[in-house]
Amino acid sequence: MLSHLLHLEGVESVVIEKQSREEVESTVRAGILEQGTIDLLRKTGVGERLDREAEIDEGISISIAGESHRIDFAKYTGKQVAVYPQHEVLIDLIAKRLSDDGELWFDTEVVSIADHESDNPKVHYRTADGTEGVLSADFVVGADGSKSLARKLITDDGGLRMKHEYPFAWFGIMVNAPQTAPELIYATHPEGFALISTRSENVQRYYLQCNPDDTPDMWSDDRIWEQLHLRADSDTVTVSEGEITDKAVLRFRSAVTDPMQRGRLFIAGDAAHTVPPTGAKGLNLAMADVCALAPSLVRAVKKSDTSLLDTYSERALPRVWKTQHFSYWMSSMLHSVPAENEMSTLFQTNRRLAELSTVVTSDAGRQLLAQQYVGWDFPSIEAL
Ligand code: PHB
């Protein structure tokens, strides 16, 4: 998206991607798009397939021990979300960049980044056949994921990496089954959390809270169905069953890097921050980062004015923290966590359920959740 935004303003870029195009396009990922992400894709000419194929949701259900509460996004915010997985967004963006003659170097690994404190930073890369080369540029952006090489240059040089680990994880399955319900269900139960999501009419994505060190072999099909029904069935909904085609454990982590820049090097998306999956914010936050970054880079390249770039981190971080808070808040309200003894566990559980009940049974609470779920306005990408 950053490369696409720069291109629209006449600024050249090269995208270096370690994986092959096929790997990027076929790795199935989650994807709830905030209103801001939907608008951005449409506005920049990459929303056509999204408009044709994505399921648009105007709410979610929160199920508390079988009692369902709907959070109506349309009513509280006038906004919607789209169920359109990340890899589909990538397929559309890659096709667009290639049809615009964009430089996307797949199967190419970045070995190191150098001289980012000078006016002429360099990226040392290696292609799949072992050929090495050096690319020099005016600016380098590390959008290289949670194990970011670019981030290390910032944290090795005094940048902060603030972190939180959660005492639970998600066990995720992919199922060939009809849709359970028209909207996502976030369910909590004394046995733990469950999420009923979807990939298409015939493919469903379900998650169960599990222990961080659980392995897929600890979850037999019988145990999965028993737990999904126990945690997520309600008066009106029965989780649909089918052939399970994939089982995986997802770790829960939060992390924020501050600052998100050093000299002529900038980081965006998971390279800069990680959110747990509960609020489905990862892709959306990355999109908001690049909306803050793109106009600043355009101004720097076209007008030799780096004043906006200098404030990139300051402008991006408030949204990063609000999103961290939302993902943490949703996670902590919906997951059960054993405490040191039975009475303490019961205290924590009842307090947590009272918080959740306060949120889902009042207009103020439902609105607060809805506003955060659909997302705040994006930074403006209007040309400067
Ligand atoms: C998913 O469909 O994988 C998904 C949906 C919503 C979330 C997290 C994951 O909050």
TrEMBL record:
Q: Which UniProt keywords apply?
A: FAD, Flavoprotein
> Where's the FAD-binding domain?
1-326
The keyword GTP-binding appears for this protein: no
UniProt KW Flavoprotein keyword? yes
User: SUPFAM superfamilies from the xrefs?
Assistant: FAD-linked reductases, C-terminal domain, FAD/NAD(P)-binding domain
Q: Which organism is it from?
A: Corynebacterium ammoniagenes DSM 20306
> What is the protein name stated in its UniProt record?
4-hydroxybenzoate 3-monooxygenase
| UniProt-listed Pfam families | FAD_binding_3
